[in-house]
UniProtKB/TrEMBL annotation:
GO cellular component terms, A-Z: cytosol
Organism name: Rivihabitans pingtungensis
Keywords: Cytoplasm, GTP-binding, Nucleotide-binding, Protein biosynthesis
The protein's name: Peptide chain release factor 3
SUPFAM superfamilies linked to this entry: EF-G C-terminal domain-like, P-loop containing nucleoside triphosphate hydrolases, Translation proteins
InterPro entries the record matches: EF-G-like_DII, EFG_III/V, G_TR_CS, P-loop_NTPase, PrfC, RF3_C, RF3_dom_3_sf, RF3_GTP-bd
UniProt-annotated location(s): Cytoplasm
Main location: cytoplasm
Positions of GTP binding: 38-45, 106-110, 160-163
Purpose: Increases the formation of ribosomal termination complexes and stimulates activities of RF-1 and RF-2. It binds guanine nucleotides and has strong preference for UGA stop codons. It may interact directly with the ribosome. The stimulation of RF-1 and RF-2 is significantly reduced by GTP and GDP, but not by GMP.
Amino acid sequence: RLSPLQFKAFSFPGPPMSDALTAVAGEAARRRTFAIISHPDAGKTTLTEKLLLFSGAIQMAGTVKGKKSGKFATSDWMEIEKQRGISVASSVMQFDYREHVVNLLDTPGHQDFSEDTYRVLTAVDAALMVIDAAKGVEAQTIKLLNVCRLRTTPIVTFMNKYDREVRDSLELLDEVENVLNIRCAPITWPIGMGKTFRGVYHLMNDQVMLFEAGQDIADQLVSEVIQGIDNPRLDELFPLEMAQLRMEIELVKGASNEFDLEAFLAGELTPVFFGSAINNFGVREILNALVDWAPPPSPRDASVRMVDPSEEKFSGFVFKIQANMDPKHRDRIAFMRVCSGRFERGMKMKHLRLNRDIAASSVVTFMAHDREIVEEAFAGDIIGIPNHGNIQIGDSFSEGEALQFTGIPFFAPELFRSVRIRNPLKIKQLHKGLQQLGEEGAVQVFKPANGADLILGAVGVLQFEVVAHRLQTEYGVEAVFDPCQIYTARWVSCDDARMLNDFEKALVNNVAIDAAGSLAYLAPNRVNLDLTQERWPKVVFHETREHA
Ligand code: G4P
C-alpha cells in the first residue's frame, strides 16, 4: 500500500511550473476537464453543486441551479425551454481549485440516453461516476461506462448516500468490477451507514474523517479528522464498533486492489470514494483525487497529425451545440474544447470546414455563477461561440493550419419517425428547421432516395418531442411524426465507387442521405441488415459516423 508520501509523488506537476515550461504549456498542465456521469437520481446534481461549494466557486448551495434543473421528464420540457439560459450556463462550469483550473461538464440527466452525452464525453479527459449505494450499478451507468471505454477515459467513482441504509460496500465493489469490468481501488472506506454512519477511513492517509450532517454554507465544511486507525480517541467515540471496523479494514486492505496510477489512466482501475453528497461528506477527497490524479489535457488526433496542448498556436473542436437564450433569434452556442495554444478575446480563428475566418469577440466562458466574456482560454477549457447556424458539431478551428480533430461521433439511431406537416405551404420552413436541428445534433435527419417524407432518427424518444416543440416555436411549423418500419441505420462506404453506385440503385428504397451528405442504409429489420451485408461484402456498414 502507498504511504502518503508516495501518494503525493504520484501527482501531476501543478504550478509553480518549472522554467522549462512555456506559459501555454503551464496553463494546459494545470487544467483538469472532466464529466460527471450517473444514472438519474444517483445524486449528480447534488454532487455538482457540492463540488462548486468546496472549490469556493459558490458560497451557498442552491445558488447555481434549481434543484431539478439538471434533469427533466418529458412534461418538463416547456419549463426547460424557459430556463435555457440556466441550462446553457450550468452544463459547463469552470472553477479554480488548489491552483488548478477545473472544467466540469454535465451530461444530460434525463432518462433518454442522447447522443449529446456521447459527444460530451469526447471533450473530457476524465469522468466522475456517481453511484447510488442503495441501488448499485444501474442501466445508464453501464451505457456511460461503455462510452468512456471507447476512449479509455479514466474514471473516479463516488458511492453516494451513505447517510441512508445502503448495500454492503464490498458487494458494491464486486458489482462494479463484474458488471462494469473495471478494477476498484477503495481510497476511503465507510464506517457504518444510515443512522450509524460515522464517517470514512482514508486507506492511504490512515485518517478517519468523522461524519457530521452537512450545511450548505462554504465555511462550515470542515469535519473532524482523527489520525490513525488505532487512535484511542476512536475507541472513546465508538467503543462498540471499533473492533469490528478494524477487522473490516484489514479485510479490505487484503482483498482489494491498491491504487495504481497507470492502470487508472488506462481506464482499467477506478479509485473509489464513499460519502454523502447531500451532506458534503466525501466531496473534498474527490476534488483532490481529480486534481492529483486525473490527467491534464493530452495530445489529440487532428487527422494530419497529433496536436499537443502545449503548442503555441490555438486549435479546438466543437462537440455540442445548444440553442441559446432567445429561441426566436435562433442564435446558438457552439461548445468548443480548446486543444492547444492560447485563445484570446478578439483573435481571428479559422473555421476550417468553411475555410473562413471568424472574429471571436463575444466568445463566452462558463464560470460557475454566470456566463461571462472570456479573455483567454487554454487547452482543456471549454468556450462558447455564439453563432446563427454556420457551426456544426465536429467542426475544427485553428489559426490557419488544416486540422480536423477526429473522434466526435454520430451514432446509428435506434428510433425512427417519418415527418409530415399539417400545412404543406410550410415545407420550406420544415426543411430549414430540420436542417438546422440536424446540424445542431438535436436529431438526425435522413432524406430517402425514394420518397418525399424526411426520416428522423434518434437515440432517445425525448429527442422527437424536443424537435417537434422547437419546430413549432422556432420555425412555426406543426409537424407530425409517424412511426416507420426502420430498424436501424448504417452509414455505408466502399472503395469501389461503381459498386457503391450499384448498391444505391439496387436498394433505392432503403438508402438515404443524412444532414452531412453521407449515404446511409436504412434497414427494415435485423434479418434484412444481415442479408444485405452478406450480399454486398465489399460495402462497409458503419455504426458510427464521424464528422464528414
Ligand atoms: P441526479 O442529478 O443524479 O438525478 O440526482 P439529484 O442530485 O437530483 O439527487 C436525486 C435525489 O437524491 C434527490 O432527492 C437528492 O436530494 C438525493 N440525494 C443526493 N445525494 C444524497 C445523499 O448523499 N443522501 C441522501 N439521502 N440523498 C441524496 P429527491 O427526493 O429527488 O429530491 P428532494 O426531495 O431531496 O429535493
